[in-house]
Amino acid sequence: MSDPLLRAVGLTRHFRIGGLLSPKTLHAVDDVDLEIGRGEIVALVGESGSGKSTIARLLARIYRPTSGEIWFEGREITNLRTRRQRLAYASDVPMVFQDPFSSINPAYRISHAIQRGIKLHRRELSREQRRVEALRVLDAVGLVPAEETFRKFPHELSGGQRQRVGFAQALAFRPKLIIADEPVSMLDVSIRVGVLNLMNELRAQQGVSFLYITHDIASARYVADRVLVMYGGHLVEEGPTEDVLARPKHPYTQLLVAAVPDPRAPLGLADAADTGEPPRVVDPSEGCRFAPRCPLAVDICRTVTPVRRELGPGRLAACHLAEPDELKESAA
Questions:
Q1: In a domain, 162, yes or no
Q2: Residue range 297-326, pLDDT digits in tens
Q3: pTM of the predicted model, to two decimals?
Q4: Total tally of structural domains belonging to the chain
């Protein structure tokens, strides 16, 4: 990707835990490189505790990185100094949070929820212009008639409608990238597709890029152009969505795909044993963090941390045993 919208290089976040007598370090995110293009939907996939939400909060500048850099539109924004710079970046890269029931203040109408953000981030607009803009974004996310939704309180909306309000709040800033952290995980299955379709519509109509964070690899297949797979704070695989899910290189990705009831899923590790041990991320030792669960692990996996390497066009994986496409083709 020659000119990505957002790029993270060596992104790392550690948390100190334990008391003075037994200090320990939790490695939430370790040395992550990622890129998001303009008008692209990228899915960040992994199970709970893999570091996905920490990545989201780092990119949104809610957390400060322990080390590494974040670049947006060719400018480093890791350590923005002024309030104006921070507000400008928050307008360009807002977040939509997981819980639609706690992300909106229940004491105020939807009009307040949207106009408050517009007043903070777009000070040039008058009161009437803020109202017009709020109605515009409500209509853009499918909450019609917008005037009716504008006057409602959050308790009068369903979970799916509240999540659409979250997208409307973000859209009111005229963003370039929206970070959507598990936006459908708390919604009924029947309305999840509507929210995923909304992301595609906003990308097509408004040109907005998305980082879609999820533990559901099936929804990633539905909506994303590229998939990034995380495990234990490491980015273990990435590539075009259909390619990654049809031919997963990393054993963890293979197990994720095998767990989805899909007749098109590749065979291989579907019946392999998974010990289910959580990754060790508190003062971890060298080696692959997936090795304790990996049915293919060998000695080197337990002693040497694998680095991500290119295995095909746009395909990268951090696995000692993963083979490039040309080797598999020649062996066949």
A1: yes
A2: 999 999 999 999 999 989 999 999 998 876
A3: 0.90
A4: 2
